[in-house]
Design brief:
The complex is a heterodimer.
Chain A: H1 8-30, H2 38-54, H3 64-70, H4 72-89, E1 94-100, E2 103-106, E3 115-122, E4 125-133
Helix pairs in contact in A: 3-4
Chain B: H1 2-53, E1 60-62, E2 65-67, H2 68-72, H3 76-82, E3 90-95, E4 98-103, E5 110-130, E6 136-139, E7 145-151, E8 158-163, E9 166-170, E10 178-182, E11 189-195, E12 202-222
Parallel strand pairs in B: 2-5
Antiparallel strand pairs in B: 1-2, 3-4, 3-12, 5-12, 6-11, 7-10, 7-12, 8-9, 8-11
Classes of the chains: A alpha+beta, B alpha+beta.
Chain lengths: 134, 223
């Protein structure tokens, strides 16, 4: 009769362990979310658009951000200096990608990494900056 | 005999359950400490960084552009006034690694990084407009503000000052003023003076050129 049967106390204990572990998992997973890096990366992306938006191009009459979005020729002309400027602005371990209506440049966006973004509106269309930890 | 086996199983079950409960409570405790301690540091650091780069902060000339002179004058009490969450906290503010303000040792705190430019203003440049010849003064790109001082001579009156054909100062009865004029930072500007015939007054234009250096602002706060 008793052979082959698990002790009832052990079965109860196993159920208890599962319950307690379930609650613990709630703590472990539930509090992991707020430490995510997205707000910090968003702040860096926002800083980048703000500085580009108030930076005059060396020879032109408009901000770098606007020159990037204006036309393809203007984009090609400003792209190199903008790239250097962003690289100097961002911390060394942060990579970026910029997208304008007429083209985009920067590192390819990783499919899985946490990415912060900021979009600035210009009269030629929106310019989006993505940043992530490289 | 059967009762003893059950007793043994009961002891094992109790030990197992107690062990798991202890682990569970310690994980919960760690999560609680994390959730109450770290976010306060993070909140304070974010607040200090946000207020330092805001467009209307006393240390900036516009959003994300720090004035190098104001940054040199920055001290702990001003940081506290700007961002009350940092009151009574240890904090350190650096620009590209160079310390700006430091109080206590916030090594266990949270660091927030922001991208800024530091605006350096050069010494004043001064240029005079020859009113009699009707010459112009060219203000280089990047200057957003000039001081125009108009000293009407004994002869004639100076009526108008134009910046790239835009009227910035005008008085039909004659200008005699010391005014600040706002220009576009994105292009160079020509300042031109209109005067009556044979005017001999003096118009002086004073401005400071600016250079922008990109920097990484790091704010570490340990509440």
């Amino acid at each position: 009769m008793s052979r082959g049967q698990l002790s009832l106390s052990l079965v109860e204990a196993a159920v208890g362990v599962v319950l307690v572990l379930g609650v613990t998992a709630g703590f472990a997973i539930g509090t992991a979310a707020p430490t995510s890096a997205t707000p910090r990366l968003d702040a860096l992306a926002h800083d980048t658009t703000t500085v580009l938006g108030s930076d005059p191009v060396d020879d032109g009459q408009r901000a770098r951000l606007v020159a990037l979005a204006r036309s393809e020729s203007s984009f090609t002309r400003v792209q190199v200096s903008a790239r250097e400027r962003i690289r100097a602005l961002l911390p060394a371990d942060v990579l970026f990608r910029v997208q304008t209506p007429v083209g985009s440049f920067g590192a390819p966006r990783p499919p899985t990494a946490t990415v912060g973004s900021a979009t600035a509106s210009t009269r030629y269309g929106p310019v989006t900056v993505w940043v992530w930890y490289g | 005999m059967r009762g003893q086996t059950n007793l043994f199983a009961l002891v094992v079950a109790l030990l197992l359950l107690t062990g798991v409960t202890v682990i569970g409570v310690s994980v919960a405790d760690a999560a609680l400490t994390d959730a109450t301690g770290d976010p306060r540091d993070r909140h304070a650091a974010t607040a200090v960084a946000d207020r330092l780069v805001a467009a209307d902060a006393p240390v900036t000339v516009r959003a994300n552009a720090l004035d190098s002179e104001a940054v040199d004058a920055l001290d702990a009490s001003l940081v506290e006034t700007l961002a009350p969450p940092a009151a009574d906290a240890d904090f350190r503010i650096t620009l590209d690694g160079a310390p700006v303000v430091e109080r206590g040792s916030p090594d266990n705190g949270v660091t927030v990084r922001r991208s800024v430019v530091v605006v350096n203003r050069s010494a004043r440049s001064r240029a005079a407009v020859d009113v009699a010849r009707g010459s112009t003064v060219r203000v280089p790109q990047g200057v957003g503000r000039v001081t125009v001082s108009v000293d009407p001579g004994s002869n004639g009156t100076i009526t108008t000052v134009r910046a790239n054909d835009r009227v910035v100062l005008h008085d039909d009865t004659g200008l005699d003023t010391n005014a600040t004029v706002h220009l576009s930072r994105y292009a160079s500007t020509s300042l031109r003076v209109e005067a009556t015939e044979n005017a001999t007054g003096r118009v002086t234009v004073t401005y400071r050129r600016q250079t922008n250096e990109p920097r990484v602002l790091r704010v570490t706060v340990d509440v």
